Amino acid sequence: MRGKRSLLLLTLATAILLGMFAGSGAYTFVSAHGLSYMSDDPKVCVNCHIMREEYDGWQHGSHKAVATCNDCHLPHDNVIHKLYVKASNGYYHAKGFTTGNFPDPIRIKASNAEVLEANCLRCHGEISSELTAHGTLGVPTDPTRKADLYGCVRCHLEVGHGPVR
Amino acid sequence: ANINTRKAEALQTSLRLVDLDETTVDPAIWGKNFPRQFDSYQRTIEPYHTKYGGAGSEGVPTSSKLEQDPMLKTIFAGYAFAIDYNHRRGHAYMLEDQKMTKRVTERPQSGACMHCHASNVVLYRELGLKKGAPGDLKEPLSSSNAQAQLQAGFEATCAMTYQEVGPLAKHPVACLDCHDPKTMALRVTKPGFIKGIDALARSNDSVPHLPSIERWRREGKKGTYDANTMASRQEMRSMVCGQCHVEYYCGPKATLFFPWHNGLKIEQVEAYYNDYKWKDGTRFSDYKHAISGAEVIKAQHPEFEMWSQGVHSRAGVSCSDCHMPYVRDGALKVSSHHVQSPLRDITRSCQPCHRVPADELKARVETIQDRTHALMMRAETAVVALIHDLEAAKKAGLNDAALKEIHEFQRKAQWRVDYVNAENSMGFHAPQEAARILGEAVDYARQGQIELRRLVDPAKLPTLARK
Amino acid sequence: ANINTRKAEALQTSLRLVDLDETTVDPAIWGKNFPRQFDSYQRTIEPYHTKYGGAGSEGVPTSSKLEQDPMLKTIFAGYAFAIDYNHRRGHAYMLEDQKMTKRVTERPQSGACMHCHASNVVLYRELGLKKGAPGDLKEPLSSSNAQAQLQAGFEATCAMTYQEVGPLAKHPVACLDCHDPKTMALRVTKPGFIKGIDALARSNDSVPHLPSIERWRREGKKGTYDANTMASRQEMRSMVCGQCHVEYYCGPKATLFFPWHNGLKIEQVEAYYNDYKWKDGTRFSDYKHAISGAEVIKAQHPEFEMWSQGVHSRAGVSCSDCHMPYVRDGALKVSSHHVQSPLRDITRSCQPCHRVPADELKARVETIQDRTHALMMRAETAVVALIHDLEAAKKAGLNDAALKEIHEFQRKAQWRVDYVNAENSMGFHAPQEAARILGEAVDYARQGQIELRRLVDPAKLPTLARK
Ligand SMILES: [Ca+2]
Ligand SMILES: [Ca+2]
Prior knowledge:
heterotrimer, A: mainly alpha, Multiheme cytochrome fold, 2 domains, B: mainly alpha, two-stranded antiparallel ribbon
């Protein structure tokens, strides 16, 4: 059992590395502090100046003392999911950073919004239990609209990064 | 997961002290399982007022809209609204206020009135069963038997008098009207809405704020549009209110209906009425104006329609977001069932989305409302001036046939100004749309006065009433 | 770009290749230090059009507002705007377009026109020095000497003809007009604004969107209100535009001024004009209407005033937020100096604040604009109808004295409809306010027609023009 798990981890770690290489090549990986990407320290995220606004916002947000970036933006249901999301995000972030080809302003993707919502519930599941008793709030109902319109962040948009406007 | 399975999967976190089913009308029984919601539900009995909203506190000298704005007496002359027309109050009063209004005590009214002033699910089904609808009362409301009962019972009440139906109604709007007793999921139960929203879905009016209708259209308009299975949860959070807070026809000449067959915009509703023919082949109107002789249309509380034209609906903000905000109650967050003016709790109703001080938000609302109110007074002045001109024209000997064209101007103008007046947010739900409608009202009323001067010597007409 | 250059860019602020001072008018020289801003600045030469904005691309059949909407020819009859009136274009064209308009080539115009169509800081100061103002050209603009030079030179141009001032102007609006050459801080340099904003500060109009004015008032209105030292950076991001995108008087009878002495709302501006007396004691007006004989007021691009009535200004959103959004240039974020319609770059202009798709935002804007446009056509129809009635009344023998009261209706109505038309966002900057103003325009025009029918036999007047 334990053997199986570390094998999985190894595979995944490789996948992450491959993800980042594929996205950007080894040079990017080193230069952009690729290895530190594996940590949970928010400072890691601002290795990319692109993440500066979110980082600054988080510093002023209500959750600075209680939640790091990864508490909200990575899945915590199981480690495999966590590493998978990390790998695929690592791929997109590195690719975006290197090519300069990403939406500005950056917007959370629907799949990551689902991860986010699950994290709100991970910490606040009890207080919102009556609301979620008949379905989560964050289900996208219109393909042309993003999930974020309907989730917790519909009202609590600023918890992570302070006021947005 | 689609809506159906989500609803089916629904869990209950609350303690199930009593079993609720389709026959449980009394909210106090539901309250055993959901004490928080029930407590706040009961608070709709509290009187209050804001600058333009609410009614019934000592701050408002009178709750009568007619005394507050006497122009309305002229505008409604010949109709029951001219004898008694008050500010709305909380949900707790809906049955009582309807029973006591002189519109009911001094004028005959249809049993259809009850549609929006009581919990009718059981009442309609029982009546429906009596009328021969299939099945029994225990079947879930979503079953086709139950729907047939509901519809048959509703139609029966439309053919009865208010006095006949009145004693059958036991409660103001109750849990059962908005919730499935098994899953607590939201649902719509009012026959007028069930038909009306299907008619809307069949129209061509673009409804970006109701994505499930857009999807049903894209997918080929199969069967009927059924909000209970197709609408998203967020849409349902407005549709439950749209069961009652809408423009309607409810009178002796036809079964109550929501006029959405062309769409939700004021012109589309007007066009539907103008094309609508009574059984005797004559054109739709609510009453013949006592002073002018014009056949006019009465507007009632088009909140759902007006909200549909505003930026909040487009942004996915529902009635419940503002009027039933979440409140923390101990360890739980619940929806406030104390439905009221959001200005009474700006912190919860607005500030989650608008991170600005409550005073600033209140000022924004009042800026919008003050503008609407001033323009509305201007438009009413114009409509009243036209009515007085028509009165003088009749005195000068012109009959209804001669005044036909001018009557059309009154019909158009009055419909518009009444629409904004009857809408219960003083323009807030769609500020620009409200002002646009009033601008048109002014134009039609004044055009009517101008045209009339071709028919009557201006010297015989009253001097110009101005703003 | 690769990571190395990204990092280098992130560190780089800007290389000071040349020294800039108060005499550096040519933007190309500033461009050596600030190539990104200069590059985008130059792009204001690109033609484009949106549904209601921009002009000059092949998509717009004509750039002439008069051909697009012939009612304007009637409304402006007797004024230079009836001979030539076009859609605005980019900043790069401001000098050229002004020189080439028939309003200038076929009518005498004042040198004051140049106030908003050129970089004048140096021009004014040089002229001021010639007129005997103290100091020299090297002194910082904030010094009292420099301010005296600026004011004296500006007043001198107001007394000169356009043809005399024209050759002195070298550049369309340039860096120097909005920036301090030493610190690059924003500043206002246009004498009309400097005086106008002080007049506004002295008024009682509440200006929650300009907090530094509210503060200056609270602190006892000491000295003059000076935007350059008192306004916040965010306020400056609108005030630099408010130097030109405003209603003004600019003609031979008085020094150019912004009519803000009672406040920024349309009624307050109107009241100021109505109370204003020319040197000969007669009442302010821009022209005598050629068809009707009414003395009317012309409105010009009141963007700053209209923005002030909208929810964006209240929410602290500046002109620059939408029209000069930040653009990622490598690692840096710079303000786009390609000032244009935000609809051309919704992502950067709107989406930082509105988390919805670009198409949806565009649809929201066009909903607002379509409503405004339809109501505007309605209001213009009414104003034109009144003008034609007045024409007929004159033919029927009534002179200006007899028509005095009716002329007032035209003045009020025309001022309102023109205000919305001249404003360059088709209502977007303040949707409800634009509709409210148009509603009033309709009322005044139609009231004028009604009153006129007491003076003239309606049979002698044209049949009703309608919408
Ligand atoms: Ca009605
Ligand atoms: Ca002017």
